Amino acid sequence: MLLEGYRKEFCLPPNPKAKHLRCYAHLDGNIGEVLPYLNTVLGGYQYYQEPQMLTLKFQAKLITLYPKMIAINMVADEAEGEKILEWLKEEINNTWKNRSEIKPSFEVSAKPRILDIIKLLPKDNCRECGLPTCLVFAVQVSEGSRLYKDCSKLDPLSKSKLKKYLNRCPPTI
Ligand code: SF4
Questions:
Q1: Which residue among 18, 41, 54, 82 has the highest number of C-beta atoms inside a 10 angstrom radius?
Q2: What is the crossing angle of helices 78-97 and 35-42, to 10°?
Q3: Ligand 1: residues within 6 Å at CB?
Q4: Quick check: 32 pLDDT over 90?
Q5: pLDDT digit string (tens) for 38-92?
């Protein structure tokens, strides 16, 4: 087993209006070697070799795996963070066990362009999504920490175009 345990830590992001937690797991082992295999298995969003890290998109959250740490944003509560960490632990250990049958991937997926997203947003800066501007919203959609559906002002045509555009960008898990 590559990963036997970890120490959890939960904290609020610096933004005082934020309602979600950030969750960190400080790992008791080094998972660096499994990251390219996980990139294949889970369809990574971004993979870097220097410094080594793999980012995954998961239900509008960004999960970043480093050799000795896992960071998850937009966590509703501690129970949700623990559930995601346990799922990741299982995926890490299963992928490590089966690595001889998996082709490692060092590829980086194409990231959706902020400009392409903002073109389809209402640009009202109405703040109904909880963010100060549509540009900030576009940045967060591009990074995967927000869903396009979180903009309540999107008209049906723009919504369908945005969905189509985002679906051909990075894979979601
Ligand atoms: S809800 Fe939509 S229109 Fe309003 S600020 Fe957010 S992204 Fe812009």
A1: 54
A2: 110
A3: 121-122, 124-129, 131, 134, 137, 151-153
A4: yes
A5: 998 887 677 888 788 998 877 778 899 999 999 998 899 999 999 999 999 999 9
Residue located nearest, by CA, to atom 2 of ligand 1: 151
pTM above 0.90, yes or no: no
Percent of the chain residues past pLDDT 70, beyond the cut: 93
Judged by DSSP in three states, 28 sits in: coil
Residue spans of the domains in the chain: they are 6-101, 114-167
CATH fold of 6-101, please? TATA-Binding Protein (3.30.310)
If you measure from the C-alpha of residue 155 to the centroid of ligand 1, how many angstroms do you get, rounded to a whole number? 12
- Beta strand spans in the chain (E): 6-11, 21-27, 46-49, 52-58, 61-65, 69-75
* Measured CA distances, 143 to 14, 61, 69, 89, 101 (Å): 18, 9, 20, 24, 31
Identify the architecture of domain 114-167 in CATH: Orthogonal Bundle (1.10)
Residue 20 CA to ligand 1 center (angstroms) comes to 19
Average pLDDT over every residue of 131-153 = 88
